Amino acid sequence: MTKKTAMKRFLYLFFILSIFVGNKTYAHAGKSSYHVFIDSDCAIDDFRAITMLLAGHDIRVLGITASSGSLPAHIGTQKISELCADLYHEGVPQGKGDEVHIPKAEWEDFAKSIQWGTAIKKDEEQSAMQVLYTAIHSYQYPVTLIALGSLTTYAQFLQKHPQYTKNIDKIIWYNSMPIEQGYNYVLDTASYSFIAKSGVPLHIVSNTRADLVCSNDYISKISKSESKYAKKIATVHTQNTVQKRMKQNHLHLWDDLIPLYLTNPILFTSTTNGSITLSELSASIPLEFIYESIALILESSQEYENRVFSHFPIESHLYKKEYADLLENIYEKYGVEEWKAVVLTNEIHGHTGIYSIIGAKMGIRACEYFNVGVNNIYVTTYVGSLPPLSCFNDGVQISTGATIGQGLIRISDTVYATPTVAFTCNNKTVYMSIREDVAQKIRDDIAFGVKNYGLESLKYWDYIEELALVYWRDFDKRDIFNIYTTLE
């Protein structure tokens, strides 16, 4: 074995250990280690980078904005909205930067042709400045600003709000080397000069390796997991226009390196001069390891926040027969997070109830909507304190972590016949209610049981538990709720 080969093997094992430890030990009580805001000009490498950042178990995305560059800002904003909707993260704040008159990028038509998600009708757009201000001004942690295009948006914000410089941990910016020849630099040289003099640490990440190609082999390697984010990247890269570019080796890992640098800067060789750090992926790291490192970020979305269990039990022999018979079906359809929330709800609630299970499903949907873990959402319920509607409260508390003890939940005196809950996160409040036809079915089924068995009979409670298991299995959290921004 040559000395060079031995060194590569050593680095490979060392970096595997560092990533394994880093990705497994940071998160506590749903609080992320990385608090980021993303600005993008929406090329295809931006799509991959944004998807990776949304996937990161330990990454909190406070907002995403589109600035002009590879695409005009209004087109980029639409693509970001479609991506977030496809991933069920509609609650991640989104905004549009100023339309800047710049020369058309030679790849603009290609970037336009790529579908990031299913076409949707957007609500009224917020400006990038509004979204960025809302995200930063009252946030309790320093924020890392991610720049996947020019530095225009961040320079404008700091010029308008210089007092928030202290709220920014650093800016991580992708730009080719040398700096003056990079597309993102050329887009707005004045904003680069302003940021460089602002005192905010600027970390410039570059791909200086010829082998970092976005090929079908790369896509195959990162999409082997069950992560919906990896599958999303793979699906977008099957589009004909994308495949054509890939076969010509025109696509490289550019902005993809930003999430890797954020979570594993040890993989990069860096030099710092004043407030500016230049970083490039170390030449000695094997290509297959880079692929695996990116796959780990995407797969981290499958990690769940256990406090007592090393993993939440999904072995069927640990459950009573009626639950064991459901486990595989429910786990495959809805994932371990929902299984865990409903199991714990049933245990704490004292019986397998309809409203408590639907409440747990709603809480999981709210966390998905905002793309956050437990203990990050403020909750107001409109189901009162009297059963059966009040059973909803238990499911919502357990699935979101917004418990009475945490001080994150309020039971309103106002009660709606159709269970309704307000969820607040990222300075945004949405209301969720059970779809009316589903709510009516529940009411009818409960009324049938009361009429035929009597509210106090054992037969009634057996009937309710049997129904609850059916609802647990058949009611998809993405189909049974209405989501709106004002109380109707």
Brief characterization of the structure:
It contains 19 helices and 14 strands.
Number of strands: 14
Q: Quickly count the helices.
A: 19
CATH homology superfamily of the largest domain = Ribonucleoside hydrolase-like
Named at the architecture level, the CATH assignment of the largest domain is Alpha-Beta Complex
Rounded to the nearest angstrom, the distance between the terminal CA atoms is 71 Å
What global shape is seen?
elongated
Structural class: alpha/beta
Radius of gyration: 24 Å
Give the amount of beta strand, in percent.
Answer: 5-15%
Question: Any idea how many domains?
Answer: 2
CATH fold label of the largest domain: Inosine-uridine Nucleoside N-ribohydrolase, Chain A
CATH class bucket of the largest domain: Alpha Beta
